[in-house]
């Protein structure tokens, strides 16, 4: 398996979730054992020298990637969830999406100043979700070493936004 073969598993769906949008469905990457292993191994290799202590996965597909990556890198996994889904005290950040607005949360005791975090998600679009994830992680005192995704939708400007707002965060996209 290589990047070209793994990329071919992604399905493009025209006019979803609204007319004019071509949705990139990455769930077939998870269903293909070789493609899934390839992307997890590629993410782990990119950050093998970063002294990562925790993987933070963004709901929901970031949970799939993040759990597998945490196991591969032998570190813990911490979920960043949509508003109202976590049962204990949380930090919250609001953000704007391509199609509206939302908020995410993290448990206040899930990370500490001792942690160096790698954030994982499926797709980077405008960067709003990632910026919010960085915000809630930094509220815990932890540092963000990097952000890894399967796809970077470069034309939406998320990578540029993250680079300008958070220059310390190393960004990788394994299937571009």
Structure description:
The protein has six helices and eleven strands. By secondary structure, the chain is α/β, with parallel strands linked by helices. It has helices spanning about 5, 25-30, 35-45, 60-75, 130-140, 160-165, and strands at about 10-15, 20-25, 55-60, 75-80, 90-95, 100-105, 115-120, 125, 145-150, 150, 170-175. β5 and β6 (about 100-105) form a beta hairpin. The two termini are about 15 Å apart. A seven-stranded mixed sheet has the order 5-6-4-3-7-9-11, with helices on both faces. α3 packs across α4. It is globular.
Task: Please give the structural blueprint.
Blueprint: H1 3-7, E1 11-14, E2 22-25, H2 27-31, H3 33-46, E3 54-58, H4 61-73, E4 76-82, E5 90-97, E6 100-107, E7 116-120, E8 123-124, H5 128-139, E9 143-149, E10 151-152, H6 158-165, E11 170-173
Parallel strand pairs: 3-4, 3-7, 7-9, 8-10, 9-11
Antiparallel strand pairs: 1-2, 4-6, 5-6
């Amino acid at each position: 398996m290589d990047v070209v073969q793994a990329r071919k598993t992604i399905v493009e769906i025209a006019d979803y979730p609204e007319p004019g949008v071509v949705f990139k469905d990455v769930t077939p990457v998870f269903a293909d054992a070789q493609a899934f292993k390839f992307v997890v191994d590629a993410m782990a290799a990119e950050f093998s020298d970063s002294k990562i202590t925790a993987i933070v996965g963004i709901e929901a597909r970031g949970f799939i990637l993040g759990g597998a990556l945490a196991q591969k890198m032998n570190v813990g996994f911490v979920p960043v969830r949509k508003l109202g889904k976590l049962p204990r005290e949380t930090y919250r950040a609001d953000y704007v999406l391509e199609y509206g607005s939302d908020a995410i949360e993290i448990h206040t005791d899930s990370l500490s100043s001792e942690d160096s975090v790698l954030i994982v998600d499926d797709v980077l679009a405008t960067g709003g979700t990632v910026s919010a994830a960085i915000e809630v992680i930094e509220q815990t005192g932890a540092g963000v070493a990097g952000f890894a995704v399967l796809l970077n939708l470069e034309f939406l400007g998320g990578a540029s936004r993250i680079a300008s707002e958070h220059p310390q965060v190393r960004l990788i996209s394994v299937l571009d």
